Amino acid sequence: MHSSNFLQSIPDKINDELFEDLIHTEHVQLERIVSEGHSSPESGWYDQARHEWVMVIQGKAILQFDDLSEVTLSKNDYLNIPAHTKHRVKWTDPKQKTVWLAVHY
Questions:
Q1: For the structural domain made of 18-104, what CATH number should be given?
Q2: What is the rounded distance in angstroms from the CA atom of residue 43 to the CA atom of residue 74?
Q3: Which of these, 20, 30, 74, 70, lies nearest to 53 by C-alpha position?
Q4: How far apart are CA 27 and CA 83, in angstroms?
Q5: Interacting residues of 43 by C-beta distance below 8 A, sequence separation 6+
Q6: Which of 56, 68, 54 is nearest to 93 (CA)?
Q7: pTM of the complete model beyond 0.70
Q8: What is the dihedral of CA 12, 16, 17, 20, to 10 degrees?
Protein backbone atom coordinates (compact mmCIF):
# COMPACT_ATOMS: atom_id res chain seq x y z
CA MET A 1 0.00 0.00 0.00
CA HIS A 2 1.11 3.53 -0.75
CA SER A 3 -0.44 6.78 0.40
CA SER A 4 0.05 10.23 -1.09
CA ASN A 5 -1.14 13.77 -0.59
CA PHE A 6 -3.37 15.01 -3.42
CA LEU A 7 -1.90 18.54 -3.32
CA GLN A 8 1.78 17.56 -3.18
CA SER A 9 4.16 17.15 -6.13
CA ILE A 10 2.52 19.88 -8.19
CA PRO A 11 5.14 21.69 -10.28
CA ASP A 12 5.68 25.38 -9.50
CA LYS A 13 5.11 26.36 -13.13
CA ILE A 14 3.12 24.47 -15.73
CA ASN A 15 3.04 25.42 -19.41
CA ASP A 16 0.29 22.98 -20.38
CA GLU A 17 -2.58 21.66 -18.36
CA LEU A 18 -1.35 18.66 -16.35
CA PHE A 19 -3.31 15.37 -16.41
CA GLU A 20 -2.23 12.55 -14.09
CA ASP A 21 -3.91 9.15 -13.81
CA LEU A 22 -4.24 8.04 -10.21
CA ILE A 23 -6.28 4.92 -11.02
CA HIS A 24 -7.16 3.58 -14.45
CA THR A 25 -9.15 0.39 -14.92
CA GLU A 26 -11.55 -0.91 -17.54
CA HIS A 27 -14.49 0.67 -15.67
CA VAL A 28 -13.15 3.77 -13.92
CA GLN A 29 -10.45 6.39 -14.33
CA LEU A 30 -9.49 8.69 -11.48
CA GLU A 31 -7.26 11.62 -12.40
CA ARG A 32 -5.75 14.78 -11.01
CA ILE A 33 -5.83 17.75 -13.34
CA VAL A 34 -3.88 20.94 -12.69
CA SER A 35 -4.74 24.14 -14.58
CA GLU A 36 -3.27 27.62 -14.30
CA GLY A 37 -5.06 30.03 -16.60
CA HIS A 38 -5.72 27.21 -19.08
CA SER A 39 -8.87 26.77 -21.14
CA SER A 40 -10.05 24.53 -23.96
CA PRO A 41 -9.60 25.80 -27.51
CA GLU A 42 -12.74 27.56 -28.82
CA SER A 43 -13.37 24.58 -31.11
CA GLY A 44 -12.32 22.02 -28.48
CA TRP A 45 -15.47 20.43 -27.07
CA TYR A 46 -15.16 17.29 -24.95
CA ASP A 47 -17.68 14.63 -25.98
CA GLN A 48 -16.82 11.67 -23.79
CA ALA A 49 -18.25 8.16 -23.92
CA ARG A 50 -18.28 7.87 -20.12
CA HIS A 51 -19.82 10.01 -17.39
CA GLU A 52 -17.42 12.42 -15.66
CA TRP A 53 -17.67 13.64 -12.08
CA VAL A 54 -15.38 16.60 -11.38
CA MET A 55 -14.50 18.45 -8.19
CA VAL A 56 -12.37 21.55 -7.78
CA ILE A 57 -10.11 20.90 -4.79
CA GLN A 58 -8.43 24.30 -5.05
CA GLY A 59 -8.82 27.30 -7.36
CA LYS A 60 -11.67 28.37 -9.65
CA ALA A 61 -12.96 27.39 -13.08
CA ILE A 62 -15.82 27.94 -15.48
CA LEU A 63 -17.18 25.07 -17.55
CA GLN A 64 -19.24 25.86 -20.63
CA PHE A 65 -21.70 23.52 -22.34
CA ASP A 66 -22.68 23.41 -26.01
CA ASP A 67 -26.01 25.11 -25.21
CA LEU A 68 -23.75 27.99 -23.99
CA SER A 69 -24.81 27.53 -20.35
CA GLU A 70 -21.99 27.86 -17.82
CA VAL A 71 -21.16 26.49 -14.40
CA THR A 72 -18.66 28.21 -12.12
CA LEU A 73 -16.78 25.90 -9.77
CA SER A 74 -14.78 27.01 -6.73
CA LYS A 75 -13.01 25.12 -3.96
CA ASN A 76 -14.96 21.98 -2.99
CA ASP A 77 -17.64 22.43 -5.71
CA TYR A 78 -18.43 19.38 -7.81
CA LEU A 79 -20.47 18.50 -10.86
CA ASN A 80 -21.55 15.32 -12.62
CA ILE A 81 -21.36 15.53 -16.41
CA PRO A 82 -23.37 12.81 -18.21
CA ALA A 83 -21.74 10.93 -21.06
CA HIS A 84 -21.86 12.74 -24.43
CA THR A 85 -22.62 16.10 -22.83
CA LYS A 86 -20.44 18.43 -24.88
CA HIS A 87 -18.45 20.73 -22.64
CA ARG A 88 -15.24 22.71 -22.47
CA VAL A 89 -13.15 24.51 -19.89
CA LYS A 90 -13.91 28.16 -20.58
CA TRP A 91 -11.62 29.63 -17.88
CA THR A 92 -9.36 28.74 -14.99
CA ASP A 93 -7.85 31.24 -12.59
CA PRO A 94 -4.54 32.54 -13.98
CA LYS A 95 -3.44 33.75 -10.51
CA GLN A 96 -3.51 30.37 -8.80
CA LYS A 97 -3.46 26.71 -9.68
CA THR A 98 -6.82 25.04 -10.10
CA VAL A 99 -6.58 21.43 -8.95
CA TRP A 100 -9.34 19.10 -10.09
CA LEU A 101 -10.31 15.58 -9.13
CA ALA A 102 -11.99 13.87 -12.09
CA VAL A 103 -13.69 10.48 -12.05
CA HIS A 104 -14.62 8.96 -15.42
CA TYR A 105 -17.06 6.07 -15.07
A1: 2.60.120.10
A2: 25
A3: 30
A4: 14
A5: none
A6: 56
A7: yes
A8: -80
